[in-house]
From TrEMBL:
This is Glutaminase. InterPro entries: Beta-lactam/transpept-like, Glutaminase. PANTHER family: GLUTAMINASE. Pfam families: Glutaminase (PF04960). It comes from Flexivirga alba. GO terms for molecular function: glutaminase activity. It comes from the Bacteria.
Amino acid sequence: MAAVDMDQLLAQIVAEIEPQIGTGSVADYIPALAAVDPAQFGIAVALPNGECYGAGDWTKPFSLQSISKLFTLALALSGDDESIWWRVGREPSGNAFNSLVQLEYENGVPRNPFINAGALVVTDHLAGVFGDATKAVLDFLRTESGNAEIDCDEEVAASEEAHGDRNLAMAHFLASYGNIHGDVRSIADQYVRQCAIAINCRDLALAGLFLARHGLRRDDTRMLSPSNTKRINAVLLTCGMYDAAGEFAYRVGLPGKSGVGGGILAVVPGRCTIAVWGPGLDRRGNSVAGVAALDRFTELTGWSVF
Ligand SMILES: NC(=O)CC[C@H](N)C(=O)O
């Protein structure tokens, strides 16, 4: 594709995936998310120079959920501190994001940072470095997006906490292996609160730009070395969509991270970030309309890592 008319392209994608909007089912294990209208869709594309384009509900906030896991990993690796890899692996799990089964076989070392068990360990690491992991994520998102209003949605946090037995069990199980160092309840709470951050597609695409800019933040200060940025993108490609990572790589061919709020952040290294949001999920917890839109985006532009 020669010169890309981004506004026209995004409008075309929204029109093409229209039949998928509202399909799938909203996450109902977090009651506050079950109340979200599934018939919504937004897409935003941010370019390395900070220009941002969007279509549909791209300025409407949604629940960040597991997409927070990519920001916590990046913060854990910032300054090229690689010590987190002693505590968490980087292999796809092939299991659901909230599965516990591998943890006992593998001695309390989660397969990767993008499933819940791995994110709990990363949160514990960040709590040790920054004091409060949720605040560290919020500060980063606000600075990179330029939107100081981004915050935790207290209703979503309370709703997940009231139904948080599984993550709490997982955190205690990790602690039994010595892989949670802080207070278990506090770490589980910080994890839930970073998932409950409300953000829109525009701000999410801008906040992820360091992944497309080889580790540079928007003010040109360095977040990560080019090598560690490449590595995060590689782990996103292999593990970012949980047990659907292979299918997503096949259909879209980009590093990406999804969340059960219906958002996905995808990266075309050197070119752009793309944030999509559609609350209807497939059975693995990935946005149906979001994956369809990213599929069309890479097909129409030819922008992919392959
Ligand atoms: N896949 C997700 O987005 C899961 C995040 C959610 N907060 C949970 O822990 O279950």
